[in-house]
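Q: Joint fold for the lines below.
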Amino acid sequence: MLKSSLAPILSIIPMKPKYPVACLSLCKAFRPSSVRDNVSVNAVEPFEPPPKSYPTSAYIHLPFCRKRCRYCDFPIVALGSSSANLPDDIDDPRFLNYVQLLCREIEATKVLKSDNNSPLETVFFGGGTPSLVPPRLVSKILETLTSKFGVNSNAEISIEMDPGTFDAQKLSDLLNLGVNRVSLGVQAFQEELLKACGRAHSLKEVYEAIEIIGSCGASNWSLDLISSLPHQTSEMWKESLECAIKAEPTHVSVYDLQVEKGTKFGLLYKPGEFPLPDDTLSAEFYKMSSKTLCNTGYNHYEISSYCKKGYECQHNLTYWKNGYYHAFGLGSASHLDGVRFSRPRKMKEYASYVQNLEDGALIQHENGQKDAKDLEMDVVMLSLRTSKGLDLTSFRECFGSCLVLSLCKTFRPYIESGHVLLLDDKRRVLVIEEFWSVLSNESKIEEEVAFIRLSDPDGFLLSNELISIAFGVISP
Amino acid sequence: MGSLIRASRSRKQSNYLYILSESNTFNPILRRLNWLRSILSREFCSHPRQKDDNIADLSQYPTERIRNFSIIAHVDHGKSTLADRLLELTGTIKRGLGQPQYLDKLQVERERGITVKAQTATMFHRHNLGAPDVDNTQEAPSYLLNLIDTPGHVDFSYEVSRSLAACQGALLVVDAAQGVQAQTVANFYLAFESNLSIIPVINKIDQPTADPQRVKDQLMSMFDLDPADALLTSAKTGLGLEHVLPAVIERIPPPPGISTSNLRMLLLDSYYDEYKGVICHVAVVDGALRKGDKISSAATGQSYDVLDVGFMNPELKSTGMLFTGQVGYVVSGMRSTKEARIGDTLFLARSVVEPLPGFKPVQHMVFSGLYPADGSDFEALNSAIERLTCNDASVSVTKESSTALGLGFRCGFLGLLHMDVFHQRLEQEHGASIISTIPTVPYIFEFTDGSKMKVQNPAALTADAGKRVKKCWEPTVSATIIIPSEYVGAVITLCSDRRGEQLEYTFIDSQRVLLKYRLPLREIVVDFYNELKSITSGYASLDYEDADYQTSDLVKLDILLNGLPVDAMATIVHNLKAQRVGRELVDKLKKFIDRQMFEITIQAAIGSKIVARETISAMRKNVIAKCYGGDITRKKKLLEKQKEGKKRMKRVGSVDIPQEAFHELLKVG
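A: Joint structure:
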């Protein structure tokens, strides 16, 4: 059963080993000459320039929102209601200036290595509320990207859209530009919850938005929900899930409310305390989503992501594979050449960042030295978020098999309790007796265990705990 | 000397003076600089202090012109301030130069306003004996006054008794507003038993609430001290202080030692100096001591060469000799303060003398396990403890290991305060981070096979088939409690709750009551004093002395986590209290252990009988399900923090226990 539900992922995601290649090369570049050298160097070939460690994904941050939602701590620019009064053919200067700045950043970005042969395969417009930005400005960004990096003709181009910020015309304009995936921020199907979150749209607008997406023929789209909102009840959550399923999106994202410092919610609420649901209830919500969505043909392919067969968000998969990606715009975070870098979150500072970039005053990604432990932690943290889990074959190649063994030993109680699953190369879950027998025979682990993953929903629910336990193994 | 010159060159003059004014005299380097200063001033001052040099000639002071005295008081009655004033009055320290509480050198002493280590200070004062009216003090003979500062707390009552044994008199300081308190009573009796001349000093008379007459009445009725003898002072304002030293000289007899006899000296205390090694405070009872002499210890039989000898003025002042009745320091080749037994008799090697009376080996009343908070820090803790015991030999240390906490130490202390002070010094002076197990007192268990065992660690009391406990004994104390009469009811309830037996109940005046109780030591080890203070709004004063062992119905109370006993949490309690203590321990643990991935059961058990039980349900959810737009650094930091948090916990079986849980257990009575 598990095998069949996972098989699609395996067949759909072509096994272009993105992270293994990336981490393999990185690992070779700065593998400390330590004990690990003795462990499994035979697998590592002498250093050669990696064939494809360059980025083929780009995240574009469009920070504008009508107002700030009460849970949001992203770098955004709240517009207020003033923009509505401008004539159609004149762009709000705030959009225009920002997009110009953003395009300057793209243009000033140094092309790394042999990027000329690597057109982008995913582009993701995130926000903020990207759907507020007029399509002709989106087009300008896409043109800039195309001329800088090239964009593959069948690249996945996603855009986040909020109900009430677009009509059929706007959406078809975007689709005509090549946008082929929509991520609709519904969050809840209850008017009172939308209000409580400080969302700028009504429930009616949610249904209209779903309607528009259907009528425009956007076939690849995600419906995004937030669970554990204040005053949310089981009935409400059940209703939200049912309404979501009824809308027939190809993808559903279910985010669990994180109460962040500095947000309105952060001021008002304490996690786990009324009016927020307590841990038990909010765990119930999580289990309910997993059960309901999986029963209606969605795969739970990442902690907060579900999709119909073949509709994984390719862009997000890059993240979970520890792949490289560009990022442009206010506060956005890129991962290039082993370096994670976040741009300034304030507009003024971001503008001078772009200026410096153009002046060549910034040496980008100069400090590529990251130690192996950091890389191991990144790989473990990101891959354990996915249903595929940690691919031990490539992990061993990069980091040696002794780490895998200690990971299995440390996870033992959680494997026994079913929070953590070991799988063989055919994605079959090892039964507990098999686990015990491989644990006593070290070479057998290598032979028989190909993946470690967290179980759904119990393991996923405690992923922080389990990942930090794994961190303790990597960096005691 | 060469090194001194180097030291003087390596520091700029101004810098060096600045350091002096900081006057942290405990630091050996600074002490050295101080010494340097005295040498420099002698050599380079335009007005050589001829007089000083005369005074330092100790052979000029026969016993008739020596007075050895101590100051005894309840805590906060002004003992240290009075000592400061006397040191200033005699020019031993300059007014305003020294730090307050001059003789309390440890940080913990200053913070808590207590004295832990005995100190001595030698002062010189001119006085016309029997002719107090003669003003011409220039002509008056100079007297050598030795102030022996003693610890005040009951934990150190043996040290106090040894210090008092070197004195012939004591200033009994009583707060004019608070009157006689429990420690006043205890200290008075200690001094009285040592046959000391007692000079009552009613201090803090400048306070608006001062009532010296009431205090005089109390002194009369309780100690039979003549009200006319009491001196009225305010150490703070200086009022009445001029009468103190004359009273010391006139009312306290000179030391009775015989200068022609063989050397006998009493070891008062010792400390470790990085440069000089072990420095002993001594009182020469008979004979004389000279640099180069070879001396022996009556307690250990070891012999040492006298490398340096002198007095404290108040810093080390080398004189090359000490004579009968004088008090000072000796540097010998002792390698550790463990060799310097308080109360020991030191005498010339190869001479035959009768050891001075009263020597007792150290008796440890409270034991607890000390473990590094982070298991990997064992070596660091080991060296911290080694360094600290260099200066406090009264702590016994043996290695032990616990399944829960790993490698650690079982330490024996003189009492609770001593234990607290030791913990605090480990943390303050040596930067150690520790977990302490529940303190326990030394019980005696007799088994059915006739064997007897002294139990200092509850974990040592294992269930052994065929060897059952037949009888057990626990140490008791005799406690003196003084309280305003309105609190009598509450205090009696507290004492009987702590299994106390009333020995005495007297009114010391119309408002104050003195209660005497025999209490099991175990019952006052934990939280008794805090409880007493809180039920009496802080008015109660407490003192106690060791009493005998008494038979008792004791059981070992185990704490089990998920069914596994945690050795470091076991405790020995009275059978009747086991249920309640078990309940409290379990509740505390439940409060301080966080939810974990599995359900945790916490149980308290006597043998196989469970007396209390709680469960902590499993963690439901710990996940970040949020879209990050590829920004994973924050999430990673969070998880790393979570990992570090785990590292700081103690893992017992499958349960992570935070350090605070251990700290909280200490507070359960």
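Q: Anything notable?
A: The first strand of chain B starts at residue 66 and ends at 73. Chain B has a mean pLDDT of 82.
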